[in-house]
Amino acid sequence: MFDGLFAFGHSIASFMTLESIFFALASCLVGVIIGALPGLTATMGVALMTTLTIKLPSNQALLILICTYVGAIYGGSRSAILLNIPGTPASAASCLDGYALARQGHAGRAMGIATTGSVMGTLIGMFFLAWFTPLLGDLALKFGAYEFFWLAVFGVIISATLSGGDPLKGWISGITGLFIATIGQDGIHAYERFSFDNRDLAGGFALVPALVGAFGFAEVLVAMKERRPVPQINPFDTVIPKVMDVLRYWKTILRSGVIGTFIGIVPGVGEDVAAWSSYAAAKRASKEKEKFGKGSIDGLMAAETGDNACVPGAIIPVLTLQVPGSAPAAVLMAAMLIHGVKPGPMIMIESPQFVYDVVAMMMIATIGIFIYGLVLTKLLVQVLRVPTTIIVPMLFVLCVVGTYALSSRLFDVWTMLLFGVLGYVLRKYQFPVAPLVLGIVLGDLMEKSLRRGLVLSDGDLLPFISRPISAVLFAAIVITVVLRIPKVRQWLKMDTSS
Amino acid sequence: MSIEIEDDAPVPPRSDLIAAVVWMVFGAAVAVGAWRMDRLEKLHINPYEIPGLVPFVLGVTILLLGGVLALRSLRQGALTAPDQAVAHDPVLLRHMAWVFGLMLLYALVLVGSGLPFWLATFLFVTVFIGILDRQRQNELGRTKAQQWVRACVYAAVWSALVSLSFEHIFLVRLP
Fold it and tell me: Is the C-alpha dihedral spanning A93, A211, A66, B166 positive or negative?
């Protein structure tokens, strides 16, 4: 235990330079602004920042990305409370009680609650990140090709099922993502697949341009389509969080923090599900259920604690299994690989200090959002008033130049455009984009694991379902899929409308 | 991951049927392409390592899932129900055509055409704001000249900021 504390102290000390502090504060600010602007998500923020930080040393680049991620998830609460529009999907649950409080003249109090919840949630998640990563790392060492194959499939299936809307469309989207990952040279024999003799395509689609397209370009297109008017924002009272709120709602904070973290650990689920689950659990446990949706502090605290606790939670499987817990964590994982950090089961053996570096980055990001929670509200209100017609072209320029900066080739810009248009069309027909992206991220792991597993077992499928961890993952996939079949839901008397 | 569906209005069954057919054709094309792929027999590789194995399985899965979507949309009356397609708002269509057109023009034509990056960016941002922010500017009572001057100022600042920071801080040779 003390080894861990010493390692954490060492990591914190390594970030105590003027340069790192500046990068942390600046990227938290960027994150909060991106999160607060409706239509722009944490994934987009992290993807864009990945392209901008490509030349920086790995620890500073990852510090910037984690601060952006934490800042964006927190920033989403601002527009949820002030405008009744979630800045990011993770803040949708905060609209219910946050905006109700604002309408009652307590917008400042609501923002203070959001700051308290977000800070406490990140701290709880951070604690689990430090505690669970070594434990899960030990478990991950037991994973072989069979387990990794099912884990990749499970990530795509669960992400598709919980992405909102139609699971069938989510599965199609996810499987397509897995297919896209196979384009280019295969990982075992370097055989070119679906490249049509195109030299650029032979290398496959680079992950970050695809992510910037699917979440950046597609999101700016959606923002332009919605043509949201410049909002009118009511005046608000003090935004300073109260210690009493922590003491009074400690049970809600603790419960939501644990729920958020564990939902984060589940591959491919993410912050919005964490927020809604925490909100639902708080409502079930509350003695004042009737206040939920009408300005319940308990509800707002639960949603904000849950979504922010999910951020460190989503990084746990990235570090130990190389499987992202959420869409922004998928981008973060891609950035780690670009910067030469190799997450996965061997991380606690090869580079244990890196795990504590990530915990320290999380701590610094928490301090960042706390500072901005106290001092930034008036500036944020001004940012929310900037019309999308001015922000969108500027963001699009960043999408273009950022993807070009990755490896100075125009093919990456074309990839970004292709995935942007694809993401926009998929959204239009209500096919979720997150499973597609997760499929692209996990495709290589899934394919290599399947082919290795088949070679090891000489074509026998039994080891895929007979080993304990494989059997659990396989059962989880089957149950997830079967429970979405309408006839099964009718038979089990489950709600068929959802 | 994220609950990111664009709007809550359900997609009409006919649109789902069209999408399903597209997915089925796509899945079939992937499966056929994978089936025809070289099996590298001359390299004497393990048959479970052939490059087309996974794409074939994925293609067939997409084909099957597309089939399920098609069946479901047919059961929901995709062929029998009156066409519920929402009438497209011509103003919105024109607006989105401008957005798409300008963005594609910038990314595909201006960038990398030999035009300096700062100039391409300046032109793109100016024209984008000048055209697509016009309605809001008109509501604010600004004259056309004022609108274009503002657009130029925003574009000049952003173009300079991005060009300088990428060239001198991120050390990227811009296209």
Answer: negative
